[in-house]
Write a structure and sequence with these properties.
342 residues, D-Maltodextrin-Binding Protein, domain 2, 14 helices, 41% helix
Length: 342
């Protein structure tokens, strides 16, 4: 009987059912997270806060080491993850929202197929606004149609360069883009110093996270929001969709705005083993409900409106199914041309 009991214990303790190959793989290792922005920017803040709490939800509790890659408006990080990273689940990206659709729009800096990433999830939507400094005489979108407004931009393919071009084309505003500013602190410093009169294409959540005093001190004139739905905090600021009546132009803009709906997405390299991608997705979903993470997000004035990896895939499917003429017109609007460089 003793021999039988011992044999049973050996069978139970050595059973493969109790083994967790995902935890075994990640235990004692580090995940490299490529962050598509400079240190201290909105994307960086979101990515690092997420990483700090996600590690306890990933089986094996690996470390996450952030590596900032702000080049090419954030597209360098996506290209590096797609082309250079090992496909074993130890490399992920915290991307700029433009990363999801710029390959569809033909941006030469997007050297990847966004449909092939292992999408993990997105922390929140990216609802961009156009705003001027409180001392500016431009207080409304109509004011921006009457006089030239110098706005600070990062790279030519960044939101802060693309969005003002779109608004100029669709609404007849006169934003003059001066690009080349550091996407972390350079954009906001340009406004504070008076080098630029405003920013068009920086997300509201980024402003709140990186420059909370701008909001509390009412230092901005927010004149239009680039979003599918109006922000509850800005009920009196018009959405660009509200100001466009032409159906075809509206379809083009809605395609462009899908990039913002995907917000602050995280992805693993293509061909990441399915069980590891599933574990990363589960860890992401659990982090979004983690009370300690949510408390830290509130302290950093982060907007948490998560999407699952599957929801991001659905957005991409919808976007890539758009009519060719709609894609062509959207691409023409976001093509990185026409901006003056510092």
């Amino acid at each position: 009987m003793k021999r039988i009991a011992t044999a049973l214990m050996v069978c139970v303790t050595s059973s493969p059912v109790l083994a967790d190959p995902v935890a075994d793989f990640y235990r004692g290792k580090s995940i490299t997270m490529l962050v598509a922005s400079g240190v201290g920017g909105g994307y960086d803040t979101y990515a690092r806060v997420f990483a700090r709490f996600a590690i306890k939800h990933i089986p094996g509790n690996p470390n996450i080491i952030a590596k900032n890659m702000p080049a090419a408006g954030g597209l360098a990080a996506a290209s590096a993850l797609y082309n250079n990273a090992d496909r074993d689940g130890l490399s992920i990206g915290a991307f700029a929202n433009v990363s999801t659709l710029d390959p569809l729009f033909g941006n030469p800096g997007a050297r990847y197929d966004s449909r092939k990433f292992g999408w993990i999830g997105s922390i929140g939507k990216l609802q961009n606004v156009c705003a001027t400094w409180h001392t500016s005489p431009v207080k409304t979108i109509d004011d921006a149609k009457k006089r030239e407004v110098i706005v600070a931009g990062a790279g030519a393919s960044s939101n802060t360069a693309v969005v003002p071009r779109i608004v100029n084309e669709l609404l007849g505003t006169r934003f003059k883009i001066v690009s080349g500013y550091d996407p972390a602190g350079g954009l906001t410093m340009a406004v504070e110093s008076g080098e630029a009169e405003g920013i068009c294409g920086l997300s509201w959540s980024t402003m709140k996270a990186s420059r909370p005093d701008w909001i509390s001190g009412k230092k901005l004139n927010v004149i239009v929001q680039m979003s599918m739905e109006r922000l509850p905090e800005l009920p009196d600021v018009p959405s660009v969709l509200d100001l466009i009546t032409d159906p075809e132009r509206k379809r083009v803009l809605e395609l462009i705005l899908i990039r913002q709906e995907t917000g602050r997405p995280f992805a693993s390299a293509p061909d990441t083993p399915k069980e590891r991608l599933a574990a990363l997705r589960t860890a992401f979903d659990q982090t979004m409900k983690d009370t300690e993470f949510l408390a830290e997000a509130e302290r950093n004035q982060m907007e948490i409106e998560p999407l699952t990896g599957t929801q991001i895939e659905d957005f991409l499917t919808k976007a890539y199914a758009s009519a060719p003429e709609v894609i062509a017109k959207a691409a023409a609007l976001v093509e990185p041309t026409g901006a003056k460089t510092r």
